[in-house]
Amino acid sequence: MTGPHTMKPLSGGPSFSLANKLERIVFGMVWLALARFTPPPLHGWRRFILKAFGARIGRGTRIHASVKIWLPRNLEIGEYALIGPGARLYNQGRITVGANSVISQRAHICASTHSISDPAFPLVTRPVDIGEGCWVAAEAFVGPGVAMGAGCVVAARAALFDDGDAMAVYRGNPAVKVKTRKLGSAPVGDLPA
Question: Is residue 50 assigned to a domain?
């Protein structure tokens, strides 16, 4: 098929080197064999494996066995953070998670995208910075290049594509700010909906 909208064949080389690909394959095999099916309390063991592959992880951080991490050396997690079951840290670019933050079950943090101004859609990495005391709730998405200020909350299934203000609560797709957190004043059960 030809015409004014016919695309040329994609050109350009691979986005990642052979060494990068081999590193990810080895990590994937090690994680599958030594971490993926470990009991929930073995967070220290899983931290050890991630650190062996270059991740910087603070003490007391809990990382569940079913977490998917693309490349450990592009990951930094502060002390006493929690990465919940099934969370996906798609860190082709750098992902930083601050101390005491929670990434809930099946949340997705993505640090890369593709250029839409090039017909080959080359990969573009954009770091994600999640501040201290943040919460990315269940099945929420935090997109490439996003920075979340300290205490920021992204509600369940929300999709945050722009920076999040400190102590703000966001929900929806695309996520919009719905309120500001006031620590110590909310009743039990005052969760973002």
Answer: yes
**Tens-place pLDDT, residues 127-160:** 999 999 999 999 999 999 999 999 999 999 999 9
Instruction: Supply the DSSP string of 151-171, one letter for each residue.
Output: T-EE-TT-EE-S-B-TTEEEE
Domain that holds residue 142: 18-180
Cα separation, 80 vs 47, in Å, equals 12
Q: What whole-number distance in Å separates Cα of residue 154 and Cα of residue 142?
A: 8
Of 127, 130, 97, which is closest to residue 113 (Cα–Cα)? Answer: 127
| SS3 labels along 43-89 | HHHHHHHHHHCCCEECCCCEECCCCEECCHHHEEECCCCEECCCCEE
How many domains would you assign to the chain?
1
pTM of the model: 0.87
User: Does the residue 146 lie in any domain?
Assistant: yes
State the distance between the two ends of the chain, measured CA to CA, in whole angstroms. Answer: 48
Residue 186 in any domain: the answer is no
